[in-house]
Amino acid sequence: MIFGVDEAGRGPLAGPVVAAAVFLSKPRPSGLDDSKKLTAARRAALEATIKRRCHWAVGVVEVEEIDRLNIFGATMLAMTLAVEALCTKLGCDPLEILVDGNMTPAGRRPEWRWPARAIVGGDAIEPCISAASIIAKEYRDRMMRAAAAQYPHYGWEKNKGYGTPDHMAALQEHGPTPLHRKSFAPVAQLLLL
Known about the structure:
With 193 residues, this protein is an alpha/beta fold. Helices cover 47% and strands 16% of the residues. It has helices at 40-53, 63-69, 71-90, 122-125, 127-150, 156-159, 165-174, 185-192; strands at residues 2-8, 17-23, 55-61, 96-100, 116-119. It has a five-stranded mixed beta sheet with strand order 3-2-1-4-5. Strand 1 (2-8) and strand 2 form a beta hairpin. Helix 1 (40-53) packs across helix 5 (127-150) and helix 2 crosses helix 3 (71-90). The longest helix is centred in the last third of the chain and has 24 residues, at 127-150. The chain is globular.
């Protein structure tokens, strides 16, 4: 049993970081790829198929923890939470975990107890990581659309919290919200003014 793990939301100025862990059932969904390479419609359709046919879980780390740990630490925590939740759902541990990127939480989170292998570009190579990238992105995008309703000035329904020109202009005009990452330079600089 092998899990794929990926995250969404390392770079934005606002919102949580979300990781997903996926165990692909057979037959695995066809058309899996890096979530960033898929159209929104294709990603949504694949998400529904993955959720229906496979085993999955997410780990969410909110802004306060991102600011406390730093984004790297928060990402490692989100991955750990996702894997722990999937192990709990399945009632067992995986043989191995494939993680997108060049590092895993092994040795970086005290709770991490599973064999893991980092694969650079894994979300385009390993189907289980592709599935995790889709679940993580869709889950986080939904969270940011909901946050956009609460904080309408920042365009999060479109930019998902990334530092786009419209988001930066709104940040200058309206200031940071509780969902902005105070440890990120553009937000920190505004707080110093």
